[in-house]
Every structure is written in C-alpha cells, then in structure tokens.
Amino acid sequence: MQNIKIFAHRGSKGTHPENTIAAFQKAAETGADGIEFDVHLSADGELIIIHDETLDRTTSLTGYVKDHSAKELKTGDAGVKFSKEFLGERIPFLSEVFDWAKGNGLLMNIELKTDKLAYEGIEQKVIDAIRHHEMDQRVILSSFNHQSIEKVKLLAPDLERALLFEGLPENLEQILRDKQESGFHPDQNNLTEAASQIAKTLGYKIRPWVANDGGDILKLAGMGVDVIMTDFPEKALKALKDWQANG
Ligand code: G3P
Ligand code: CA
Predict the structure, then answer these.
(1) Which listed ligand is nearest to 230 at the C-alpha?
(2) pTM of the model as a whole
(3) Is-catalytic flag, 9?
(4) pLDDT at 1 over 60
(5) DSSP summary character for residue 53
(6) Domain boundaries defined on the chain
(7) Which are the contacts of 152, defined by CB distance < 8 A and separation ≥ 6?
(8) Mean pLDDT of all residues in 63-89
(9) Which CATH architecture group holds 5-246?
(10) Ligand 1 pocket check: which of 114, 164, 227, 231 to mutate, most ligand atoms within 8 Å of Cβ?
(11) 142 lines ligand 1 (CB under 6 A)
(12) Which end of the chain is less crowded, N or C, counting CB atoms within 10 A of the terminal residue's CB?
C-alpha cells in the first residue's frame, strides 16, 4: 500500500487561524503526518512564523514584520481575525513551535520566505534553531528562492531540503537534475503526470500544495505523490483512507 502523508498547510488553516500553535495542534489531533509553516525575521533578528511579509491580513498589528521587534510582535493577536473564538492566539516564534513539537512526532516543512525580502542570514538562524532543538530529523526546508536552498545545502548539507515552484518551468528536468535536491514542491494545479514522472525518476519526493478538494486529493494520490499539503487535514485523511480502502 502506498504511504501518502498528509501535511497541514500553515497548520489546519481551513479550520484554525493559519500559522498559529492552535492550527498546528489541530493538525496533530487529526492525525496529520506533518505541518507546513512560513518563517520571516523580525527587526531584531528573531524567527517569526507568519505567511505574509506584513502583519495586517492575519494579525492585530500593522506594517512589515521586519520593522517590528520581537517584543512588539509578542503583543500581536494572530487569532481574532480568523474568529473571535481564537482571541489571544499569538504570533509564534520558531523556538516556540519547536518547543511545542517536542510533545509530538510531526514532521515540519519550514518555508523560508525569502522570495520577496532577502532576510539576510535567515538560513543560518533557522539551522541554528533546528540544531539547538534537535529537530534535524523532523524538518524539511523549502523555498521559492532556490538560492536560499543552496545556502542551506552549503551550511547544513545533512538537512532535508526542497525546491518550491509556482508554475512549472519548461526546463524542469534540467533544474531538478542540476540542483540535486531531494524534494519537489509544485503547485498541485500545475502538477502533471509527466512532471511527476520526471521528478520520481530523478529520485525526488513529490509534495504538492495545496489540495483541499476530494477530487484533487485522489488525483494526486493516483499520481503516487509522497505528501499532500492541505488546509483541511481531517478531511484529506478521510478521503485518503476511503480511497485506500476501495483500492
Ligand atoms: O509550501 C507550500 C506552500 O505553502 C507555498 O505557498 O503561499 O501558501 O506559502 P504559500
Ligand atoms: Ca508556505
């Protein structure tokens, strides 16, 4: 039987405020295999878990993450904009996520959000945090900025890395061949049977994002992907279970 894993995208983003401990905890409770989350740097160099470069959409604060100190970011609410029920949910720091993760065995796909802002030195800081918390075997570092992934490869060749793609380039095969990474993270809407065969042949793990629809989940399962990232881990796990029971 194919072992397809479910990763909760920004945590259980469909049911809980994205990139919060509440969303990660929900993912753990549903039986997801892993979580995906995004990392940025505060003004004073702390690793902050949030999707956007700015705070406005998901928190009670405004402006760029990079312009706020860690102390200021600690005052932000990352739950109430999703629902009043989550009032008081904080913007997590990477160290807090790692502390929380010590209570479970979830894998963690850490996306380095260096595609819009450079965040000088973020790669080394993330690696230091992984080492400090002994999370080496539980993380996959990914980025749309493939130079960031190259930096990780130089700084910590033993850590698992993955290339994120928005759309697929015509020379995908060449890129995957040249980069010699281990993870291929395409937008699920762009993933074709041909692209998945190329990645598989080159030994890549295929972890498409983000499939919420039952039909999409089954299509990806049929292609033999390794992980499906979803906003609704509970639903995705059920869809996969039903599919496997009928297969
Ligand atoms: O890592 C996969 C996916 O999270 C990339 O897109 O915009 O949700 O960070 P985004
Ligand atoms: Ca992400």
Answers:
(1) 1
(2) 0.98
(3) yes
(4) no
(5) S
(6) 5-246
(7) 112, 123, 126, 127, 141, 159, 161
(8) 98
(9) Alpha-Beta Barrel (3.20)
(10) 164
(11) yes
(12) N
